[in-house]
């Protein structure tokens, strides 16, 4: 059993939520936030920093998929434009 499952679950405080949002956005930590918020921020920031290749890979994949969809739509719209109605 994982150690985290033995801990009680509680909702995040306001400053912990703000710290989490800042960490995901890459914004700086606000020194007015609590020590618990600092731990949340550092945990998320550290996790993101350890996975840059996975994030970049996912973004590249999404970009590639969007480019394929755009090319397909452009091909379809061009073929329709050449059709003559008599």
Q: How many β-strand stretches?
A: 0
Task: Please report the number of helical segments.
Answer: 4
Instruction: Spell the H/E element sequence.
Output: HHHH
Q: Roughly what is the average pLDDT, rounded to an integer?
A: 78
Question: Portion of residues in helices?
Answer: over 70%
Overall shape: it is elongated
Largest sheet: none
> What fraction strand?
under 5%
How many structural domains are formed by the residues? Answer: 1
* Rg (CA only): 23 Å
Content-based structural category: mainly alpha
Distance between the termini: 72 Å
Please mark out the parts with pLDDT under 50 across 5 or more consecutive residues, or reply none: none
Model description:
The chain is an all-alpha fold and 86 residues long. It has one domain (12-78). The chain is 72% helix and 0% strand. The protein has helices spanning 3-6, 14-25, 35-49, 52-82. The longest helix is centred in the C-terminal third of the chain and has 31 residues, at 52-82. The N and C termini lie far apart (72 Å). The mean pLDDT is 78.
